[in-house]
């Protein structure tokens, strides 16, 4: 029975599995998306997301912890230099898994795993949200009511002036 055993061994010994996940994580950070099987994508998601969380705070210790997992200096630098600033305000969920269907050779379930903030297709329609603060209802409602009539009156004045100039 496998009670409490949550890790997917992916049919590999421990050292091979750790090396494979480290290499896949480096490829994901370098290329921002990779194609792999669904099982490997799910295992990679659990491997990468804590590293991205650590990269949000750029300290020597966090760089060393990430380097101990990934073992590639360039990938760690890319993670802290480009990935971390983009995901700084996101509370989690840095990767997305999109299922692609089955592979022709062996009919394995394939998936694309990508970093969420680096997909231009999904993020094109969304405008960047400005952080809002909570204010009292009285202060904001009074400000909008006062400004609205002034805006409506301005085009009416412009039309009257244009008619006078024509005459």
Automatic annotation (TrEMBL):
Keyword Flavoprotein listed: no
Region described as Disordered: spans on this chain: 127-167
Ranges annotated as biased composition (Basic residues): 127-138
Keyword Ribonucleoprotein belongs to the record: yes
Pfam families, per the entry: Ribosomal_L17
GO CC annotation terms, alphabetical: cytosolic large ribosomal subunit
UniProt keyword terms in alphabetical order: Ribonucleoprotein, Ribosomal protein
GO BP, sorted A to Z: translation
Biased composition (Basic and acidic residues): 157-167
Any one GO MF annotation of this record: structural constituent of ribosome
Low complexity compositional bias, start-end: 139-156
Domain of life: Bacteria
Family of this protein: Belongs to the bacterial ribosomal protein bL17 family.
Subunit structure and binding partners: Part of the 50S ribosomal subunit. Contacts protein L32.
Name of the protein in its database record: Large ribosomal subunit protein bL17
Organism: Aequorivita sublithincola (strain DSM 14238 / LMG 21431 / ACAM 643 / 9-3)
Gene name per UniProt: rplQ
């Amino acid at each position: 029975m496998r009670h409490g055993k949550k890790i997917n061994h992916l049919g590999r010994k421990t050292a091979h599995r750790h090396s494979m996940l480290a290499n896949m994580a480096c490829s994901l950070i370098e290329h921002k998306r990779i194609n792999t099987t669904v099982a490997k994508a799910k295992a990679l998601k659990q491997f990468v997301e804590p590293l991205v969380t650590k990269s949000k705070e750029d300290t020597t210790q966090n760089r060393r912890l990430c380097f101990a997992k990934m073992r590639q200096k360039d990938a760690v630098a890319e993670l802290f230099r480009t990935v971390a600033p983009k995901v700084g305000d996101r509370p989690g969920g840095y990767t997305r898994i999109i299922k692609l269907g089955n592979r022709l050779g062996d009919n394995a379930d394939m998936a694309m795993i990508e970093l969420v903030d680096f997909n231009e297709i999904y993020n094109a329609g969304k405008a960047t949200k400005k952080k809002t603060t909570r204010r009292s209802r009285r202060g904001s409602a009074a400000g909008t009511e006062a400004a609205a009539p002034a805006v409506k009156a301005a085009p009416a004045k412009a039309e009257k002036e244009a008619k006078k100039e024509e005459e």
